[in-house]
Amino acid sequence: MCGIVGYIGSNNIKDVLIEGLQELEYRGYDSAGIAVLQNTDFAVYKAVGKLENLRNKAASFAPEGFGIGIGHTRWATHGKPTELNAHPHLGQSSYVVHNGIIENYQELKNELVAQGVSFLSQTDTEVIVHLFEAYLKTAGSPFEAFKQMRARLEGAYAILLVTTSEPETIYFAKHGSPMIVGRNRGGEKFFASSDSPLIGLAQEVVYLKDGDFGYVTPAAITLYDGSGNPAAPLFSTLPESKLSAQKEGFRFFMEKEIYEQGEVLADTMLGRLKEQEVYFEELDPQLFAGVNEIKLCACGTSYHAALASSYLFERHARIRTSVEIASELRYKEPLLSPDTLFVVISQSGETADTLETLKMAKAAEMKTLVICNVDNSSMVRLADASILTRAGIEKGVASTKAFATQMAVLWMLSLAFAKARGTMETGAIAEQIRHLRELPACVRVDDALHERIKRLSKRYLHGHGFFFIGRDVFYPLALEGALKLKEISYLHAEGYPSGEMKHGPIALADPELFTIALMPKNMLYDKTKSNVEELSARDSTICAISDKPFEKADDFIPIHDREHYMLEFFEMMVVLQLLSMEVAVRLGNDVDMPRNLAKSVTVE
Questions:
Q1: Whole-model pTM?
Q2: What are the residue numbers of the active site?
Q3: Band of the pLDDT at 503, cuts 50, 70, 90?
Q4: Share of the chain above pLDDT 70, in %
Q5: What are the chain's domains?
Q6: Strand 230-231's sheet: what is its strand order?
């Protein structure tokens, strides 16, 4: 969600900070700000809305020589999107930026107000800087005040703080929200809440662990662990190319990422498909031993991947599989047993609700596995085992290639489980592997198809909503199609199992209700057809996606004649992504950064 950057060095501090924030735009934000400290003088700029507004505000600011700076893109949680609520937040002589939520902020605020402190914003973040300065009055050093302040905070946070008392030092703390520290051969130091702002600037980075805190100066990175003990920074090498994060001629990152799916699926399967079995080198075979149930846990698009794969695990591996929405599991007092494999799915590996459920599973001594796109993310570091989806950088907020690669990994994992449990014949597994190898070609975007969807999209801009319907694995795909349309077009859409229409939703059917019907030849076609006919009889406008023309459809989007229903699944996935994108384009929306949404949701 919110993004953080920090810098110590002699290059143009303003440009480093603002360009770093630009790399974090994909996470979603509604305001932004920077604070630069040179000697003992602060320069601070904030703006509501896009980063261009911040650039315009700071246009006349041209810092020269050494300095330190912090920057932030904010997604409102406490208080509306205003300049006063934008970060960085000011004390008397200090500034702070913060991702996460301070759960006891009201208690701390009341305490500070009683001491005579005045607050300017409605945010939880502002208590951090005032609490620091309250301790600074009696502490022996700014770092001692920072430690005392940190000890009082409850909740999730990634914090950078700068103060005129130490004008060459950035103090940091991390708990529950991501934070990375980087350095380069020129002696510059950097902070960011993800890799992307650091690529091309830092050669080495430290992925901070929960509880880590410390300070950075031009000379060194000083790190302490959650118990307050000195810790040696563990550096990792960072790639130096940003090529994969550029649009490369496409109109939007989302469009580029839809077109990339064939390439990334090939990467996802590379080295994992043998002739007669799926092989995950990163998994110890003991991970499967003694497992009698799988519990899949995720949010949003990743939840839809989990739900679709639950059909595959039960069908292929004959193992009981349940699916949980992470934000619900956290508070339902679930029964978590050691003979269950707990699988979390996340693009970023930082999704707050999902991360907390992983911690619950670890506390319950369950075996844990994360399926994730980001190495060194919090979930990857915490889980017993991890499978990387290899989707590359995904900048569009509405996930596309991340979903595709999650589904490919889960399909492969269901076959690995089937092999371990002896529930499928070797020949049947080999047949599935043959179909998996077809995925890169299956998701390749056909220009004629894309043009057809472009033309068709103009007919779906009005009306009172959409039903996306399907059966079996195509029901979760319908949910995902509805979510994509909602996210970027702001039109109301719902996903339903086709057979549920007559149990209530069909009451909404009329010509202004658009039904997107997923009608795969290889999975319950006649049943689905019957359900669509029920809607057609009530005058709902039908758009059928199938390899077989449907005479009662108002519109028809053809897919290829495939041998296996999962190939139909992946091809329909591309159609739904393109349809959502083209509807959003016609409505004039920002496809890559839809309103109110964030790419990495690091608050609950």
A1: 0.76
A2: 2, 599
A3: confident
A4: 97
A5: 3-241 (3.60.20.10), 250-444 (3.40.50.10490), 445-604 (3.40.50.10490)
A6: 89-90, 94-102, 155-163, 166-175, 213-216, 221-224, 230-231
